């Protein structure tokens, strides 16, 4: 459609993408086979059949299970490279991607195996696809702060290729405040800070991410609209929200795309941006997220362009590089 053509043409940035969530069933089967691992599915169709979720936790259980076939550096390279070639075709110019080291180190895959594969693909993407990148290591919030400290320690030899830390996994019952000390220690190592907050959790978790963890960007943040003082804070301090519309529908954070809060957020002056979260599981990469949102909410061309501009504004690119994209 005309709308899809317009969205394709807009240069975009992806700031909320879990590499493990870009693991397409086709590649999963291929890697499982060469690693002699049997998947609990007999076909790609039966995998897709299993991708029906009622909440975040039901998704996470399947997402962590899928990641278990990743064993070798080449597996992490292939995963990352497949993602980059996909978004290259969607006119994505810059990515800031998450990986979950603990999902792999917990099952005996060494930190360096994971990051070397990812980094090699990101460098190739920079050189061959002209996609610039930042890399964000995400702590799993269902695990302890001690475990996160262990991960921070393991990351230090790779400090130069890790730009920031994030916080993901099961939100309810695992508030940002649980990770106060490790975020402080991460900042002291020079890492930038972001955290998932207000996806399923309350606006209070967004306050905690800002005041206790001192993050500069909130991943999701849907629930902020329930708190006027919080909205004011986000606007005044230009704290970006990295929204993921198809994820929100897939995980029933909202029941329908036409309930998505992004239009209201733009109206209020929040630096809202749109991303894909876990596209292999939720069925939409960047352009599909823009398209479904624009269609359901009847966004104007100006609003669509604002979302893309906000993405570059909220990124960790230098002011110089931002100017080249906006
Ligand atoms: N929320 C929390 N943790 C996650 C997500 C998400 O949307 N995707 C991958 N890990
Ligand atoms: Zn996420």
From TrEMBL:
Gene3D superfamilies to which the protein is assigned, alphabetical: Metal-dependent hydrolases (3.20.20.140)
Keyword terms: Hydrolase, Metal-binding, Nucleotide metabolism, Zinc
Binding-site positions, substrate: 278
A GO biological-process term: adenine catabolic process
Cofactor: how and how many bound: Binds 1 zinc ion per subunit.
InterPro entries in alphabetical order: A_deaminase_dom, ADE, Ado/ade_deaminase, Metal_Hydrolase
Domain of life: Bacteria
Name of the protein in question: Adenine deaminase
Catalytic activity: adenine + H2O + H(+) = hypoxanthine + NH4(+)
Site (Important for catalytic activity): 220
Transmembrane segments annotated in the record for this chain: none
Active site feature: 199
Family membership: Belongs to the metallo-dependent hydrolases superfamily. Adenosine and AMP deaminases family. Adenine deaminase type 2 subfamily.
Organism annotation: Maribacter caenipelagi
Protein role: Catalyzes the hydrolytic deamination of adenine to hypoxanthine. Plays an important role in the purine salvage pathway and in nitrogen catabolism.
GO cellular component, one term: cytosol
Protein EC: 3.5.4.2
Every Adenosine deaminase domain range: 11-326
CDD domains registered for this protein in UniProt: ADA (cd01320)
UniProt GO MF annotations: adenine deaminase activity; zinc ion binding
Known cofactor(s): Zn(2+)
Residues at which Zn(2+) binds: 16, 18, 196, 277
